[in-house]
Write a structure and sequence with these properties.
alpha+beta, 8 helices, flat
């Protein structure tokens, strides 16, 4: 036991050395977007837990009606399925390895925590892949401001209610019914600060002030996701942009699921480590190109 003289002579560094460090049971989980896009595409389960590795989703051709004179003969038309979306599910997955010592001595349930993180990563990749195939549509494309391509985007060429309305028009011209728009947080901000939604004199109400986001417009549900595509454009100055996706969710995209997400665990007694793997089998594609309209706009 140290006497008072010895304690009073103790340096600060020594005191710090005897102060224990603690680990909290509370874990700050890295933020990842929840699976969002799947509920806005058609889900095909033809291959789910069945034999086969490729599914063909046929696109039916059109039949037209015409006048028929009295006593006239109808001319049969050919109902064809000349094209099809071909999906070939492949395996997607991620895994972690955790030592037995960490599991036995740690305050946190590492196995449970790792499982949650792996499933989030798998869902995040699925969202990104669906957003990518929807953005690949070339039938309908709009740009912010006076731009005609990403190379001539300028600051201020942001998303506006008018652009969303134009996208709705373009899709309806192809006999589809758009019902959802995917935007990045930057585009949600542009809408949220627009007079159209905040000024009562221009039809605005208190929805944005109460909720912090614009929930809908012109029959479109506005969904915010960090997984919509982004890039850099501009003539001389690098302009950050995102691709807003407006589509008819019933006709635009499709995901084929061969195997739903599954968790597998293994223990190696020699390494004394647990391995956790999360995998699924799927593929996704653009079912009807004209059911989508991309809007490429600058972030600010």
């Amino acid at each position: 036991m140290k006497d008072f003289e010895q304690l009073s002579d103790t340096h600060r560094e020594d005191v710090q050395g005897i102060i224990p460090e603690k680990w909290s049971k509370l874990v700050e989980i890295a933020t990842k977007p929840k699976r969002l896009f799947r509920k806005y595409v058609r889900v095909d389960t033809t291959l789910l837990n069945k034999e086969g590795d490729i599914v063909h989703i046929p696109r039916r051709g059109e039949v037209t009606s015409d006048d028929v004179s009295e006593g006239g003969t109808l001319v049969p038309q050919v109902l064809n399925y000349s094209t099809a979306l071909v999906l070939e599910p492949s395996e997607h997955g991620c895994a972690v390895k955790i030592s037995s010592q960490a599991i036995e001595r740690g305050l946190v349930n590492l196995l449970e925590d790792a499982t949650e993180e792996l499933s989030s990563a798998l869902a995040d990749e699925e969202d990104t892949d669906i957003a990518t195939v929807l953005s690949a549509s070339t039938s309908n494309q709009l740009y912010g401001g006076n731009a005609t391509g990403t190379a001539d985007l300028e600051a201020g060429d942001v998303l506006t209610p008018e652009l969303l309305t134009k996208a709705v028009r373009e899709i309806r011209k192809n006999d589809y019914a758009p019902n959802v728009a995917f935007v990045a947080p930057e585009q949600q901000y542009c809408l949220g600060t627009c007079d159209q939604f905040t000024n009562a004199a221009t039809w605005g109400d208190k929805t944005v002030q109460k909720t912090g986001y614009v929930p809908s417009w012109m029959g479109l549900v506005i969904e915010t996701s960090t997984n919509v595509l982004s890039g850099l454009g501009g003539i001389s100055t690098a302009i950050a942009y995102h691709t807003v996706i407006v589509c008819d969710s019933r006709r635009a995209g499709c995901i084929s699921v061969k195997r739903n997400p599954s968790i597998a665990r293994d223990y190696d007694p020699l390494e004394r480590k647990h391995t956790i793997a999360c995998t699924m089998d799927r593929d996704q594609g653009l079912l009807n190109d004209a059911a989508v309209c991309s809007i490429i706009v600058s972030d600010a």
